[in-house]
């Protein structure tokens, strides 16, 4: 009877082993039948719980090279929070299993938790939150997943029912299972890497194809717009074609002329001055919104030729430009630049020719020939003559300076009366020559020039200064009037001033305009003596002398202006006489002092 019982027990054990082997073999077949990593890992966990039926929970961690952490990839008996469980190499049980490449079998709760003391607080919190059961782990089995000598990860199984080590047969089954798991995971990872590489190659091929298409499109756009330029269709035709290709409102705002192309964009001319101020020193395009009478939004592309600002290509609206639209803008901009330079060159030649003809006219002294020459310039001679010489200056290169000169010239051309005047420019100078029949017309013209230059100097960093000369017109004497305007301009330059200055306001300063600054300073040093050469020590005495001369040697007026007592002033004056070696009662000595004070005020104090 006992023998029969043992035989029956043996049959059950044999049947169990046979079933486990069948499950194991089935697991080998199933987990190696897929190459999708996530699918493989899920099947591994499912078969692990089937082979080791007493398993209550478990997870597979794979090593991530970037973070150098073991990361949960598949699990049973936990909720989704277990995905946040990330273990360092050597940390807790699973970290040591991975590091050492050895199986860990722990059969008591106490020993398990003693081996988990170095688990980080964050990971400990995650494990507690991820546990489906509140029961403690009674036994644990953790096995490294290795492909040859390469460690891939760790598989760990938990039991909550009882403290018991797995049998030797369980261990053999687990090691056999783990070896096949490693092969399956390695194959799946290889497949994933291949798919990723294939995806990258496909992406690169797609990008290459897109790039080739863009290059072809760019070439077509460039050739199309270039053909319009070669055929001399003009600036407006190129802008209109860009408008047609983009199906958006496109126009060009010219900085020099201060107007738009095509000309039917007149409403926008009210705001282009603001755009010019925004983009005059910029090279990159930008979206701009302007709120005045109505809200307007644009994509603005500055058109430049080196350091020279030509204007703005403007696309109406704030919608992002498509790649095709950007190609049209990028290819159109240099063609527009070339077209604008062509127009500018023709205009520059015209102004330069006018400039040369004007100077030829100035050289004519014979009244009869001068009358013929001035008519050839388009001027009807009248009673009064006006000559204005304008010079531009600023911290920019010569090309940019000439560009600003053209811009001011265009504004003057637009704002001044068109009749009976000549305007030309060369480099950074503008010449305006005209005749009028009445002094009031003359005064009105000069006032307009003053307003235009004042407005310019308020808006722009490149400054304008102008010398003006007016008077009665005598044929053959126009050069004299021109030279006076040049002298008025020179007077402004000497004082480092901008604006407009009339020759008649110079006074006796005209006698010293052509003297070098070093000559004037030498005269001041000779006259003021120590008051000039040691100004730090004698600053108060120099100020006293200047005030004394300006108040016509009036002791009372000078003392009042300096806020000192007349006795104090008397002692200062005597001391000054001794220092500079001058006798104020001597006509020549005092004249030298007066002249020195005048030159100081004109050429030093005002600058």
From TrEMBL:
SMART domains: GAF. Residues 36-195 form the GAF domain. PANTHER family: CARBOHYDRATE DIACID REGULATOR (PTHR33744), DNA-BINDING TRANSCRIPTIONAL ACTIVATOR ADER (PTHR33744:SF1). It comes from the Bacteria. This is Transcriptional regulator. It comes from Neobacillus bataviensis LMG 21833.
